[in-house]
Write a structure and sequence with these properties.
Blueprint: E1 10-14, H1 22-37, E2 44-49, E3 52-58, H2 61-64, H3 71-83, E4 92-98, H4 102-110, E5 115-120, H5 129-137, E6 145-149, H6 153-176, H7 189-197, H8 203-209, H9 211-226, H10 231-244
Parallel strand pairs: 1-6, 4-5, 5-6
Antiparallel strand pairs: 2-3, 2-4
Helix pairs in contact: 1-6, 8-9, 9-10
Length: about 260
């Protein structure tokens, strides 16, 4: 079933469960599991040309301190180095466990990959693949690429769901173990005042509301503070949002 409005260069189809694709998506899932073992969001990818896997990789932004180290970017880099050519060609198929973000779509099209098979099509960074492709459709430079979504989607979604569920539980326990809010990462006395204004007086208050909703409340306050002379507190609250969401602890200065 075709769901795309862009037949000229890009198509977005529902994967039909072709048996020949399943081993390669399984390879991508194995890479996603490796990512989870390294504390990375479990996304994996494999690049196949003429029924041969020429590269496989997983998410590694945290491990490499590289915002661009998404699974798709990693596998494209490996494949280009292996083949000695940055143009992988229309015969190349990329298998990835989660729908690519805009950055990765750009890399896919730059590499002139002909086909992309996606596992889970849900992504908070890229809600509608056809809308994202519309940005590229407007330019003349890109070569055609066919996208197929939903290949082994349940396995991809389960892996992601279990990862975030485990990470949330670990962070909930970490918050529960705090002696006071001053023990939050990057927090100072001014931060405590800001948290009090938001209704957070003890670590238990975060748990009663739920860490996800608490993070949203802090994000809204952080955005408000950015418009005034309180950039440091805005950055600290932004860092606490990531902390509550289970992200690695970072210096507040990285959020300025």
């Amino acid at each position: 079933m075709q769901t795309s409005n862009f037949p000229r260069k890009f198509s977005v189809l529902t994967h039909q469960g072709q048996a020949e694709d399943l081993p390669w998506m399984e390879l991508a899932l194995q890479q996603a599991e490796l990512a989870a073992q390294h504390g990375e969001v479990p996304i994996g990818a494999a690049l196949v040309i003429n029924s041969k896997a020429v590269a496989q990789a997983h998410n590694a932004p945290v491990s490499l301190n590289d915002a661009c180290a998404h699974a798709e970017i990693q596998v494209i880099r490996q494949a280009c180095q292996s083949l000695g050519n940055y143009r992988l060609g229309a015969q190349a198929t990329l298998y990835v466990t989660l729908q690519p973000c805009l950055m990765c779509i750009g890399a896919i099209l730059h590499a002139r990959i002909g086909r992309v098979v996606v596992g889970c099509s849900q992504s908070r960074f890229n809600g509608d693949l056809t809308q994202s492709l519309a940005v590229f459709e407007q330019a003349e430079a890109w070569h055609p690429c066919a996208f197929e979504t939903g290949c082994m989607a349940q396995a991809s979604e389960k892996l992601l769901g279990n990862f975030f569920k485990t990470r949330r539980k670990q962070r909930e326990q970490a918050v529960a173990d705090l002696a006071s809010l001053l023990h939050l990462p990057n927090a100072n006395k001014q931060t405590i005042d800001e948290l009090a204004l938001l209704g957070f007086h003890t670590p238990q208050d975060f748990l009663l509301l739920g860490l996800e909703q608490a993070s949203q409340r802090l994000a809204e306050r952080s955005a408000e503070l950015k418009t005034g002379p309180h950039e440091q507190q805005a950055a600290i609250l932004a860092s606490l949002c990531d902390y509550l969401n289970g992200e690695p602890v970072r210096s507040w200065k990285q959020y300025l």
